[in-house]
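Shapes recur. One chain:

:::
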Amino acid sequence: MQISKNSKYNLSKTRLFFSILILFIAIPIIITIGVKLFNDRKYNLISIIIAFLSCLPFFIRFESRKPQTREIMVIVVMASISATSRVIFAPLPGFKPVTAITAITGIAFGPEAGFLTGSISALVSNMFFGQGPWTPFQMISWGLLGFIAGLLTKFNLMKNKIVLIIYSIFAGVLFSLMMDIWFVVSVDGLFTLERYKIAILAAVPFTIEYVISNIFFLLLLNKPIGEKLERIKIKYGLIE
């Protein structure tokens, strides 16, 4: 029994290692190549590559068996809800449930599912808002927020409302900082610390709006949607 537990633990560590390798190293390198080598003009290609890489950590979880259709469908449904919610709240640019829904998916189904939901949400919703060089940055930003929410859940931290609020603040600030990087680079392909500081200061009102939005939607939606996802997960034995 002990060997089985150790094997399961080692597999979990291996999956986490490959996930971090893909999400924090491979994808940023792809984005950098897109900015530097292609002058941010091949953003559609870069977005497709990121979408493909986002799928890998999710499917790595099924190294011992093939994923069932319903396990894939639940992520498709959550990404669709997330993308649709962004379109519905289009009149309020910084006030959207995308981060909350992405985080809730990560909480219920793990960090890999959270990343996949966040990145696909950005790609799909931009079919309405318009694809552009900002799309890869949105994909990795929302994806990372879903991944981090899933990691925090492994330590049973996301059940606490105080932690949810702290996460919401962190998520709003991180998303703004990530998009500020794109804003600076989009000028002429160069990144300077001085420009970045100016961009951060200019984005403070939007950052505050992101934070308020995250707190509102995460506290509002976490329990009702989270409970439904947990029931689905237990009933069908999804993504164990």
